[in-house]
Amino acid sequence: MAATAAPARPTFTTPDAWTRRDDPKFVELTAPEGDTRLAIVDVASAADARAAVAAAWKLWKPDFARPPKLVTLRAARNGWDERQVVDYEVSPNEKRGIQAVAFRAGTGWTVLILDGSEATLEKRGAAVGLVLQSLRPAGYARETFAGRTPLPMTPERIAQLQAFVGEAMQQLGIPGAAFALTDRKGTIYSTGLGVRELGRPAKVSADSEFMIASNTKGMSTLLLAKLVDEGRLTWDQPVTQLYPAFKLGSADTTSKVLVRHLVCACTGLPRKDMEWLFNTNSASPASGTFTQLAATAPTSGFGEVFQYNNLMASAAGYLGGHLAYPGMELGKAYDRAMEEKIFKPLGMTATTFDYAKAMAGDWARPHGDSIDGATVAFGNAGMKLNRSVIPYRPAGGAWSTANDLIKYVRFELNEGRLDNGTQWVSAKNLLERRAPFVPVGEDRFYGMGMQTDRDLGVDVVHHGGSMFGYKSDIMLVPSAGIGAVILTNAEDGQSLLRPFMRRLLELIYDGKPEAAGDVAAAAARIKAEFAKERQLIALPPDPAAVAALAGAYTSPELGPLKIEKRGPDVLFSFTTVTSKAATKKNDDGSISFVMTDPTIAYAPVVVAKDGDRRALIIRDGQHEYRFAEVR
Fold first, then answer.
1. How far apart are the C-alpha atoms of 309 and 262, rounded to whole Å?
2. Mind giving me the DSSP string for 57-78?
3. Residues 313, 60: Cα–Cα separation, whole Å
4. Are 421 and 440 in contact (CB under 8 A)?
């Protein structure tokens, strides 16, 4: 009798510079740093995802004994009949990330295991995304819209899109949202859904103001494109020629940075947001952008990987303002340049960097999740944290409305032509911003504050925006002549952005109906994650841990931290935010204080010692900030 052939292994793309090892039981990919690995393990059969993951660990690392923390469903797609994610509890001091994803096709399972350092996972996130996005069952043909005739956005299709947004808002607990659609001639449709603030009757409209956060970046690079047209600079000009004070933490990297690199996320500089988020006020000078950049060293090679950096985008906008109005203070010059060269010509009368103006009338209040997972309004305290972006506003400080922002999308769709037909920015320089620099996933590329996705066979140009309680997206599909804007006033609005794009493409190209499943899975995942985290913390906090705290701490980068004890409660007060804290006993024996304010819910502050001084530690993926007690 002939032997039965083993089923073909799934296909995936190996990231550049990663080392691949093929074993009969698995394929292992190792990051260039050597401290992070992905394993793709085939499991012939298993009772469920949890069992499949356990079997995969035994095949790859038999001595792994950490129990699963949480198992959550993802929507089936990309040829898989089922996808489940298994998360593991990791103590903050481990500085490690561990996760497994179980994929089922028929009765067989494929498990992807991720185990690595937080620092490498952050800077190699696009490579991890490439593997996840490209992992497909053997023989599966990717969905593509290439060659399909786009369908018009008729009233019926618009109604379907609106119904989708409304249902998603209910599932995700989003109080308010607004969206708008445009073709090359004008706005097709705009509307508001839900309320400006939970518990209050005022409705969101298409004219309600929202923070648009990083959607500001594309408009800042549009300013640079206009200045290139005017002969004020060139894309290939060294930044130091135009602004000699520009300096990074590496002289070599500084010398390589051309204007086109300022918002490319490709210079090797890591994300570094903690200093401006925790230790900035709205009156801080715009020059702080350049001070912080001078202290920021690259953690990867120039052009090697995608690393998002808000400080570089802030510098790009301020450079543009400085060249337009060289005699003015950086912030005022940028604001004037954006008003005179972008907002006013495009007819964007409601788009502003003026918080008082934006918050004077019809504006959507930000919302987040309490530690119990309930949607709550941030209030004035939350807006104090959002004001921390003001000194860095070219990277994410603008306010706008659906009716106003869609004008910008239409301008992009028309490649630099105003609604009256005037070519305000040359197509050449406008499109230069979409040229790919670094990949951010499978067939997805980042340009200058603009991302282009080609994974479905048609270009989708887009960018997201995220500040506390505000999540938004802009998108245009040039081949269909359609653009869109969506604005939300909740943290969980993040889980609506990509599905909104997917639903729009489904309607234009008669695609597989996947968007609704993505929203449902995200809503269930968020609920499960908050429930699990709530089980792991103590509130009120552990009295012994509270008693051991000093009354005040200070960090060279993040500024002062005041500790206030009120009965059984303890409050942590940073420059921009104050939060009650819970405690969490970590698996390695360490103690973390966990923030409970919805703006920074579950952010850990780890108890430490610096010699005989008490200390606290806050980390992001690639930086550690130590607070020493004040004596």
1. 9
2. HHHH-TT--PPPSEEEEE---T
3. 42
4. no
φ/ψ (deg, to 5) at 458:
-130, 150
Q: Cα separation of 95 and 622, whole Å?
A: 9
pLDDT at 150 over 60: yes
Average pLDDT for 225-233: 98
Element (H, E) at 453: strand 451-453
Rounded CA separation 69/87 (Å): 5
Closest CA to 259 of 221, 230, 296: 221
d(CA 450, CA 436): 9
Q: 374-403, pLDDT tens digit by residue?
A: 999 997 777 999 999 999 999 999 999 999
Instruction: Give the SS3 label for residue 368.
Output: strand
CA dist 447 and 619 (Å) reads 28
Q: ω into residue 152 within 30 of 0, thus cis?
A: no
Helical H runs in 283-401? Answer: 288-294, 310-324, 330-338, 355-358, 379-386
In single-letter form, the type of residue at position 523 comes to A
User: Phi and psi of 287, rounded to 5°?
Assistant: -65, -15
Q: How far apart are CA 128 and CA 37, in angstroms?
A: 10
The C-alpha atoms of residue 436 and residue 417 are separated, in whole angstroms, by 23
| Torsion sign across C-alpha atoms 270, 271, 277, 281 | positive
The DSSP code sequence of 536-554 is T-BSSPPHHHHHT--SEEE
Q: What is the DSSP secondary structure assignment for residue 42, as one 8-state letter?
A: E
pLDDT of residue 3: 40
Residues in contact with 425: Cβ distance below 8 Å, sequence separation at least 6, in sequence order: 222, 225, 226, 229, 411, 416
Query: The whole model's pTM is what?
Result: 0.96
Type and span of the H or E element at 309: none
Read off the tokens for 593.
Answer: 């204080």
Rounded-to-integer distance, Cα 503 and Cα 492, Å: 18
Residue 5 binned pLDDT confidence (cut-offs 50, 70, 90): very low
Residues 102, 95: contact at Cβ < 8 Å? no
Task: Give the residues across from 112 on adjacent strands.
Answer: 40, 101
Radius of gyration of the chain (CA): 25
Neighbours of 623 (CB within 10 A): 18
